[in-house]
Amino acid sequence: MREHGVDETVILKELEDAAQRNVPYARVLSSMCTTPHPIALKAHREFIVSNLGDPKLFPGTASLEHACIGMLGELLHLPLAAGYITTGGTESNIQALRSARQLKKVDPGKANIVLPESAHYSFDKAAQMLGVTLRRAPLDDELKVDVDAMAGLIDRNTIALVAIAGTTEFGQVDSIPAIGKLALDEDIFFHVDAAFGGFVIPFLKDSSKLKFDFEVPGVMSVAIDPHKMGMSTIPSGGLLYRDERFMKLLEINAQYLTSQVQSSLAGTRSGASAAATYAVMRHLGMDGYRKIVSTCMDNTLLLRDSLLDMGLELALEPVMNIVTTKLPDAEATRKKLCDMGWFVSTTSRPEALRMVVMPHVTRTVVDSFVTDIKKIL
Ligand code: 0PR
Description:
The protein is α/β, with parallel strands linked by helices. Helix content is 40%, strand content 15%. It folds into two domains: 8-36 and 285-376, Aspartate Aminotransferase, domain 1, CATH 3.90.1150.10; 38-282, 3-Layer(aba) Sandwich (Aspartate Aminotransferase, domain 2). It is built from eleven helices and 13 strands. The chain is globular.
């Protein structure tokens, strides 16, 4: 830091220059985040100074967080769910597994978690932090986890089962009712990572076919991210529990706080996330999200059809707003697109080019992306 401070106008210019260098969302088909809804931005700015780490100092903000959990609970078929607003899917997944480890005492170093090969890398972080082993079950032809293989990996040291509702790479949804049954039969804690799919599946036309939340017996916790398809600001995640008891397992004594105890992973945490999430969920309502998801799905199918017309093959028929197309050297194509200013990603098994059709990927964006990809394929 400099000895003497710099004038505000100079700094504002520096900030403007830094912002200019960021890639505009309209060129980004690799991200699960999007431009937040304007009302979320307004709410975020208004609550930026509040700290939910000490909720009794900010009872107004705490009531907004409580209301968010209520609305998320309703969305996930459990209006009375317990939970809190996290910083995102990573924190939600870590915390859910922390609850599972607290719940079932096994010999130190022996605990394991059975999860799909498609699970997000946040579970690797969780495993390192919690000192548990990950047992990865393979996927079937539809890129869903093989439930029989999961069953075969369970032993008496298994503290949790995990399933994904909207896999990061392909947007597939595991057979959650079957895994819920397995969890109940084996009496094991079952966590569903719906960080991406949680704000998509309930708004799809045939949503009732994809059961993934608390309506499925056996599901004990769900991660759902308002900062992905929920149109809220970063960092906004949601962790919901079937029973408050699971969240209580995380409580740490913090006598000097107004709340005396704390169960979140972060200590000091922004109230802005809760305010933004509250505002956008209240403002959009179910029909608002339904419209957003419907437009994303129309654009997803438009992109899918354009790629099929080019003679390309899909890695998976889109279940949600992610398009994956098989390519022998997907990485080379990704780089060429990057040189043209487009950001997409690749997958390895199967090797594919991956495009996430977020709300900022409009029809115009799809058309111009297709025009460019035609030039190089
Ligand atoms: N669970 C699933 C299924 C996810 O897809 C992700 C993130 C997480 C958990 C972790 O969520 P947080 O990153 O909020 O902690 N999936 C994306 C990914 O890692 C996130 C992302 C978003 C990546 C924007 C890039 C990007 O530009 O690929």
